[in-house]
Design a protein that fits this description.
The protein is built from nine helices and four strands. With about 220 residues, the protein is mainly alpha-helical. A two-stranded parallel sheet has the order 1-2. A two-stranded parallel sheet has the order 3-4. Helix 2 links the parallel strand 1 and strand 2. Helix 3 runs parallel beside helix 9, helix 4 crosses helix 8 and helix 7 packs across helix 8.
Amino acid sequence: MPVQLFFSNRIEQLAAELAANLYPRHGGGRHPFDPLRIVVPNRNLAKWLQLTLARGQGVGMNLDFAYLDAALWLLLLERAEFETPPKPASQDHYALALLKVFEHLPAEDTVFGPIRRYLNRMDARSPSATAGSATAPSAGQASAEAGRWQLAGKLAHLFQEYELNRPDWVTAWCSGRMDGGGMAACQGHLYLLTLKLGERLAAATGERFLTLAQLAREVMD
């Protein structure tokens, strides 16, 4: 499918070119009630385009504005035949899975040493709750929990970046090849544990959560 790119330093000219493509003179064989999908970078541009197209055409209807990730997700689902379509997994899904993984790190596996040492240092700085405050976490405990969530969030962000920008790493991890040792290997094993946790969740609930990169890899393969 060919792609045409239009460049201009004036957004009004780009909007006019978009309108000419969306509303060709003879209708282009499109049903008038079919939604027009328009990919935009933010909500402000979507609102401006909606008003500009409505002003130019007299009416603006069935305009389906979507961000790039959401649009790609829908296009990939249209290419596949899922009995139960997967749901998009956000960075928070990864972070929550990592928090669960942190709680159950295999004690005998030395590959998790870098993460285990970091978590132990955070726990050591968190004094245990006293008997009088057993119902409420101490400030130190709250700080340790916040630190775990912060660490999980950073790793979750890295994992999604690896899926998009370092797919060779992800492919190697999924095939059981952990190159580099140290924290690099630790990240690979953590990534695999999050995938296994997702598989267990899918088996228990019947719902699959995938990132955009995971869906693309599954559909395109």
